[in-house]
Amino acid sequence: MKKNIALVAGGYSGEYEISIRSAGQIAQNIDREKYNVYTIVIEKSSWYYCVEGKHIEIDKNDFSLTLNGEKINFEGALIIVHGTPGENGLLQGYFDMLNIPYTTCSALVSTITFDKEVCNALVRSFDIVNVAKNTAVANNIVKSIWSAKWKNPPYKINGNSKVKLAEVMISSKACVLGNRFIINTIIIHKASKKRIPIG
């Protein structure tokens, strides 16, 4: 007997459209001989299944769908929602309460990893990896290297004047892993928004 699977897509973030397209790709590649697949779209005002241009509301009391008088319950959910409520533990907690299996990590892990400050504080508490407490430290390191190595910076934007430190935005993440200091830095020219290579 085929299982009913919900592809949960949409969400409340700016990546709504990407989520919908991802769900479409997944729906095309799921084995229909094993599964009945329903794409459930989540929006702030409505959770629905779309059939022939008509929106059929999901019963949030048990995450069920009624089609032609038949109630459909789901035996699994593939969460394809970017941002809230798919990556921050809200959907996971909801499905946990309804005992519906889902494809992502748990509600707790999703909640922790979605909040970078909480995640960093937790990882730091294990005293295995030294997480930078402030990216300003990493930014200052980059500025020092820039000043020492590139007194006359070699990079040009649109073939014009050489780039100066005041003309760029520096975004850095740093940590110590074992005996190595790891710094991941992106330098963007403010006016043109072009990325400048480092090295």
Describe the structure.
The protein has 199 residues and is of the alpha+beta class. It folds into two domains: 3-114, 3-Layer(aba) Sandwich (Rossmann fold), CATH 3.40.50.20; 130-196, no CATH class. The protein is built from five helices and eleven strands, in the order E-H-E-E-E-E-E-E-H-H-H-E-H-E-E-E. The chain has helices at 16-29, 90-98, 107-114, 116-125, 135-149; strands at residues 3-10, 35-42, 47-51, 54-57, 64-67, 70-73, 76-79, 130-131, 168-177, 180-189, 195-196. The chain has a five-stranded mixed beta sheet, covered by helices on one side. A four-stranded antiparallel beta sheet has the order 8-9-10-11. Helix 2 packs antiparallel against helix 3 (107-114). The longest helix has 15 residues, at 135-149. It starts with a strand and ends with a strand.
Summarize, please.
The protein has helices at residues 16-29, 90-98, 107-114, 116-125, 135-149; strands at 3-10, 35-42, 47-51, 54-57, 64-67, 70-73, 76-79, 130-131, 168-177, 180-189, 195-196. It has 199 residues and is α+β, with helices and mostly antiparallel strands. α2 (90-98) packs antiparallel against α3 (107-114).
